[in-house]
Design a protein that fits this description.
By secondary structure, this protein is α/β, with parallel strands linked by helices. It is built from 21 helices and seven strands. Helix content is about 60%, strand content about 5%. Helix 1 packs antiparallel against helix 5, helix 1 packs parallel to helix 17 and helix 5 crosses helix 16.
C-alpha cells in the first residue's frame, strides 16, 4: 500500500503540473476510439498503424471521455500505479522487503514512468500486462497461472507489437511454464482478433508494412534518446546488471531494452516496458546505500519529479526528447472552430486535437502520418466537405505539397500564432 499510495500521489501531482502539455499521439487514440464508438470500423473506415487493443480500451470508456477527455489520462495513471505494485511484488520474490520496497519506490519515482502515466498511450498498458503475466508465472508456478500469463501477453501484443519484448523474458524466467504460456498467448491473440478477421490484409498493410517503410529518424536523435531513456535514467540498474547478482532473466530483460533503439524511429515511451526491470535491478543496491534514509531518498526523488514536471511544462516542445506540445496554444484555434463552423461539421487538420477538442468530425481521418500515403488530390476531392482546414507548424504537421495553394483560392486564411486556419466565414 505504501508503494501504491506513493506512486499515485506523485503521478497526480505530476499530472496537475503538466496538465497543459500533451503528446500528439494522445489525440490520435482518443479521436479514433471516439469514431469507433460511433460506428466507424478500424482499418476500413480509418487508418491505424498499431493493433486495435488500445482503441478498444478507450472505446469502452468513451462515454466518460466524451464528457471529460482527461478521464483517459486518469485511467493511464491507475494502470501505471498498479504496475508499481507489481514491481514491488516481483521484488518480494527476489529480494528482502527493503529491496522490494526500494524497487517499488524507484518505479514510482521513474521520470519515464511518470510522464507516460499521465498521458494517453499504449506503453503503460503493455507494461502492466507484461509484468502482470510475469508475476503470474513466477508467483503462481502452475500451468493454470501460465495460461493467465499467456493471456496477458497476448492482450499486450493485441495492444502494441513491442509487447513481444516480454517473450524471451518469460522463457528465461520460467522455461517450463513458458511452454504453456506462449501457446496461450497465441490463442488469446487469435480470439481477440476475430472481430477483425475481415480486414486482415488492411491490418497487415497498416500495422506492419507501413511501420517498416517509415522514414529513418536522424541517427544522433535515435542514439541519444536510447542512451538517455534506457541507460541514463537507470544508473543503478546498470550497476546491478554488471554485478550479476540478479537472476539471469532480470539482467536480460534490462539489456534487451536496448533493442528498442534499433528501430527506424525511437521515442522516449518505447522504453517504458524496461522501467520495471531497471527498478528491480536497482532496488537492492539503493536499499543498501540508503539503509536508514529511504524516506529521505523518496523526498529527494519527489523534489526531482517536481523539477522534471516544471521543465516539461516550460522547456520547449521536446525537452529531453519528450513531446511537450501545449494545449493553451491549441485553445484559440479550438475556440475559432467552435465559433466559425457548424456543430456537426467536418474539419480537415494535420493533427487530430483540433477536431477532437472542438467536437467536430476529422475529415477523411487525415493526420500527419497519412501525409506520406496520399497526394494533394486525395484531399482536394474532399475539401468541399470541410468547414475549416487547420495546418500546424513544426513536428508532426503538414499536408501533401500543393494543397495549400488550392485552399487560398477557395477559403479565407486566418493566422493563430504559428497555426494557419482556413474557414468559409467571410468577414
Amino acid at each position: 500500500m505504501v508503494v501504491l499510495g506513493f506512486a499515485l500521489a506523485l503521478r497526480v501531482l505530476f499530472l496537475l503540473v503538466t496538465a497543459d502539455t500533451y503528446d500528439y499521439d494522445e489525440f490520435v487514440l482518443l479521436t479514433l476510439a471516439r469514431d469507433w464508438a460511433h460506428g466507424a470500423v478500424p482499418y476500413r473506415d480509418f487508418m491505424f498503424f498499431h493493433p486495435p487493443g488500445a482503441l478498444a480500451v478507450l472505446r469502452l470508456i468513451e462515454p466518460a471521455t466524451a464528457m471529460w477527455w482527461p478521464a483517459a489520462r486518469l485511467l493511464s495513471v491507475l494502470i501505471d500505479v498498479s504496475t508499481a505494485g507489481i514491481v514491488f511484488k516481483l521484488g518480494t520474490l527476489m529480494w528482502d522487503r527493503r529491496g522490494a520496497l526500494a524497487s517499488g519506490v524507484l518505479y514510482g519515482l521513474s521520470p519515464l514512468a511518470m510522464v507516460s502515466a499521465v498521458r494517453v498511450g499504449q506503453d503503460p498498458m503493455i507494461t502492466i500486462l507484461g509484468t502482470g503475466g510475469l508475476l503470474a508465472l513466477l508467483a503462481g508456478r502452475t500451468w493454470r497461472w501460465a495460461i493467465v500469463a499467456g493471456v496477458c501477453l497476448g492482450a499486450g501484443i493485441w495492444i502494441k507489437y513491442p509487447a513481444l519484448y516480454f517473450v524471451p523474458i518469460y522463457v528465461l524466467a520460467a522455461p517450463r511454464l513458458a511452454i504453456v504460456a506462449l501457446p496461450a498467448s497465441v490463442a488469446s491473440l487469435m480470439v481477440l482478433g476475430v472481430p477483425f478477421s475481415g480486414n486482415l490484409q488492411a491490418i497487415w498493410d497498416q500495422t506492419v508494412v507501413f511501420q517498416r517503410t517509415r522514414y529513418l529518424m536522424e541517427g544522433s536523435t535515435r542514439l541519444w534518446t536510447t542512451l538517455f531513456w534506457w541507460l541514463g535514467i537507470n544508473p543503478f540498474a546498470v550497476v546491478g546488471a554488471i554485478r550479476r547478482h540478479a537472476p539471469l532473466w532480470l539482467i536480460a530483460a534490462f539489456l534487451l531494452g536496448g533493442l528498442f533503439g534499433l528501430d527506424s524511429q525511437v521515442y522516449y515511451h518505447y522504453f517504458v516496458p524496461v522501467v520495471p526491470f531497471a527498478c528491480l535491478l536497482a532496488g537492492p543496491i539503493v536499499a543498501k546505500l540508503a539503509r536508514r534514509a529511504i524516506a529521505a531518498l523518496a523526498g529527494i526523488g519527489v523534489a526531482l519529479a517536481v523539477i522534471w514536471a516544471v521543465a516539461l511544462d516550460n522547456a520547449g516542445e521536446a525537452p529531453l526528447f519528450v513531446t511537450a506540445a501545449h494545449l493553451s496554444r491549441v485553445a484559440p484555434v479550438v475556440t475559432l472552430l467552435r465559433k466559425d463552423t457548424p456543430a456537426n461539421s467536418s474539419v480537415l487538420a494535420d493533427r487530430y486535437e483540433y477536431a477532437y477538442l472542438s467536437n467536430r468530425t476529422a475529415l477523411a481521418h487525415y493526420f500527419w502520418n497519412i501525409g506520406v500515403l496520399v497526394d494533394p488530390y486525395y484531399l482536394e476531392r474532399r475539401l468541399p466537405q470541410a468547414a475549416a482546414v487547420v495546418m500546424s507548424s513544426g513536428a508532426s504537421s503538414g499536408f501533401p505539397v500543393g494543397l495549400t495553394g488550392e485552399l487560398d483560392q477557395t477559403m479565407r486564411q486566418v493566422r493563430v500564432g504559428s497555426i494557419a486556419v482556413w474557414t468559409r466565414v467571410r468577414r
